[in-house]
Amino acid sequence: MYAYDEIDRTLVNERVSEFRDQVKRRLSGELTEDEFKILRLQNGVYLQLHAYMFRVAIPYGTLASNQLRALAHVARKYDRGYGHFTTRQNIQFNWIKLAELPDALADLAEVGIHAMQTSGNNMRNVTSDQWAGVAPGEIEDPRIWSELIRQHTTLHPEFSFLPRKFKIAITASDHDRAAIKIHDIGLRLIKNEKGETGFEVLVGGGLGRTPFIGKTIKHFVHGRDILSYIEAILRVYNQYGRRDNIYKARIKILVHELGIEKFSREVEEEWQHIRNSSLQIDDEVVEDIRSRFAYPSYEKLPHMPDELRQAAADSDFEAWRKNSVAPHKVQGYSIVTISLKPIGAPPGDATAEQMDALADLADRYSFGEIRVGHEQNLALPHVAKRDLPALWKALDKLGLATPNVNLITDIIACPGLDYCSLANARSIPIAQELTRRFANHELANLIGRLHINISGCINACGHHHVGHIGILGVEKNGEEVYQITIGGRADESAALGNLIGPGVKFDEVADVVEDIVEAYLALRERPEELFMDTVKRLGVEPFKERVYATR
Amino acid sequence: MTSPLEQKKIKIAGPSVVTANRTWDGIVVYRTAAKSWSADLSEAAIVRNSDEAKTLLAESVADDVGAIGPYIAPVQVGADGKIEPGNLREQIRRTGVTIGQPVQV
């Protein structure tokens, strides 16, 4: 966990006071909605279909148990008893009253949580690998650098009025769990031949109306130069990014229109002006941040404790363990992913009771720490293997032990037309129906790794472009219609999916997905050939044929 | 959501209302003939041509403290005068999400 210093605490508290005053002036009529809108957006407050929506940042996806309890408290006291974890390590509350928002923010500030820059045309929450600091083989903890960037960019005046929102993600593992290639800037932490820490820098990734996979702009930027290099990118974007057309305002469009070579020349030129400035990071600064991350005092534990050996006889436990438990960098410990995708439930939702109970379990079994992943699941990052059976039983009682992580029912979905004012079609009911169709665990296991992503409009909050099966809801002649893509992926081999054909109606979507899956099972050469391997080998055609043969 | 400014150019195709979200708590409201806001669609003022719609929208936009984001939305008016939302979006705004919520209200 990262411990905020006095500067951080003062900043967060001052922000609450400032927003309280702004809300008061808005409610009295002193501020018009036009004047107030930018202020509320800078504090994560949107207006959705039914109410205001409040988005709270969980920087690099790390939460302490007392912070999770504070989120539960907000859900219970100010909302309707639940929250929704998003694809960018935020949590959203859907039913907040504007008049009560300052109190909710004040309650969160007590545990160092805020909503600054969770919306608006500024630098958004810096996201990272939810297994940061515990993943075997990781180069180093990417959260140290995420925190450095967070500190530098929070309320930075030059980045507060960008042409459009701006998102950074960082990974330090070979397997990218942070989806860096679909971010405005993606950072892959690497070492150079001298063993020095630095980054491969990617730029111009993003989904939405015009999706692009990020391109490498520089193969190695030394850690001490990363702030100046990011600043150079932002300056070029700030200068040339389009402000006349919201649909062309993201950096991905600028990179595409200029071309990566010209864009990188512009950045390089800007960088030479500032790289040897105060933006160069001293080792002491990095070490100071590192020192504020508290790491657990791990015990020396056996690789295979008796408790785990005995529990292996329980097939339900084994199904969960094989699916949800991952190796930890420290012997005797595991990383446990907690599926927020129970069969028939909205993906990513957690009730206040579940959050409170999870906070207790984190205290008991994970050194008081919880992680939030972009796949809309949670994780306990430091669980002793001997505790896995007891943890599983406790999670099962909470409805949080569905063994479907990375399987077909581990669906990423945006809130869609049930909540969102931008949406054209519903996402959640589609996800619910799909989880019911593939509820059988043996079937889901037989299918193997398969990610379905659903968005209720072209803004692509459900990342449908990079779903192995992507589902995009649109509106056509007053009806919900869904376009299906296959072959997308969000990892280190990120790719955009290909459309398989004309859109289908709401009631047909689950049937179409079943057809695609049946085609895959028939076409794969062996059980180990994953869906994506089959798509890569055969392309879209056989799936298209199967889906549209009878439609 | 279409902005009120853009909607000024829109010709309505049938009976419509002006809807918005109440400023202090964000709930869905409808403009009434009494120049107020109501959470009950049956109390909404019905407009049937562009001029009426523009007038009602302008009046609604002016009441910035009462509600935000006003826009014209289609409705269906039955023979008995009962008003129903004119599309799925407005149906969801009126009756709530189409899914079970994790915690029943």
Task: Walk me through the topology.
The complex is a heterodimer of chains A (551) and B (105).
Chain A: H1 6-28, H2 33-41, E1 45-47, E2 52-57, E3 62-64, H3 65-78, E4 82-85, E5 90-96, H4 101-109, E6 127-128, H5 142-153, E7 168-171, E8 185-191, E9 197-203, E10 215-222, H6 226-240, H7 251-258, H8 260-274, H9 283-291, H10 306-311, H11 315-324, E11 325-327, E12 333-338, E13 349-351, H12 352-365, E14 369-372, E15 378-384, H13 388-397, E16 412-413, H14 428-437, H15 441-447, E17 452-455, E18 469-476, E19 479-486, E20 498-499, E21 504-505, H16 509-523, H17 531-538, H18 541-548
Parallel strand pairs in A: 6-7, 7-8, 16-17, 17-18
Antiparallel strand pairs in A: 1-2, 2-5, 3-14, 4-5, 4-13, 8-9, 9-10, 11-12, 12-15, 14-15, 18-19, 19-20, 19-21
Helix pairs in contact in A: 1-2, 1-4, 3-4, 3-12, 6-8, 7-8, 14-16, 16-18
Chain B: H1 4-7, E1 16-22, E2 28-31, E3 37-38, H2 50-62, E4 67-77, E5 83-85, H3 88-95
Antiparallel strand pairs in B: 1-2, 1-4, 2-3, 4-5
Give descriptors for this structure.
heterodimer; A: 551 residues; alpha+beta; 6-stranded mixed β-sheet; 5-stranded antiparallel β-sheet; B: 105 residues
Description:
The complex is a heterodimer of chains A (551) and B (105). Chain A is an alpha+beta fold and 551 residues long. In chain A, α3 runs antiparallel to α12 and α14 crosses α16 (509-523). Chain A is 37% helix and 18% strand. The N and C termini of chain A lie far apart (53 Å). Chain A is built from 18 helices and 21 strands. Chain A has helices at residues 6-28, 33-41, 65-78, 101-109, 142-153, 226-240, 251-258, 260-274, 283-291, 306-311, 315-324, 352-365, 388-397, 428-437, 441-447, 509-523, 531-538, 541-548; strands at 45-47, 52-57, 62-64, 82-85, 90-96, 127-128, 168-171, 185-191, 197-203, 215-222, 325-327, 333-338, 349-351, 369-372, 378-384, 412-413, 452-455, 469-476, 479-486, 498-499, 504-505. In chain A, the strands form four sheets. In chain A, strands 16, 17, 18, 19, 20 and 21 form a six-stranded mixed sheet that branches. Chain A has a five-stranded antiparallel sheet with strand order 1-2-5-4-13. A five-stranded antiparallel sheet of chain A has the order 3-14-15-12-11. Chain B has helices spanning 4-7, 50-62, 88-95; strands spanning 16-22, 28-31, 37-38, 67-77, 83-85. In chain B, strands 3-2-1-4-5 form a five-stranded antiparallel sheet. Chain B starts with a helix and ends in a 10-residue tail after the last helix. Classes of the chains: A alpha+beta (551), B alpha+beta (105). Chain A binds chain B through residues 26-29, 32-33, 47-52, 80-82, 96-99, 345-346, 349-352, 417-419, 421-422, 426, 428-429, 432, 478, 480, and chain B through 1, 21, 23-28, 64-65, 68-69, 87-89, 92-93, 96-99, 101-103, 105.
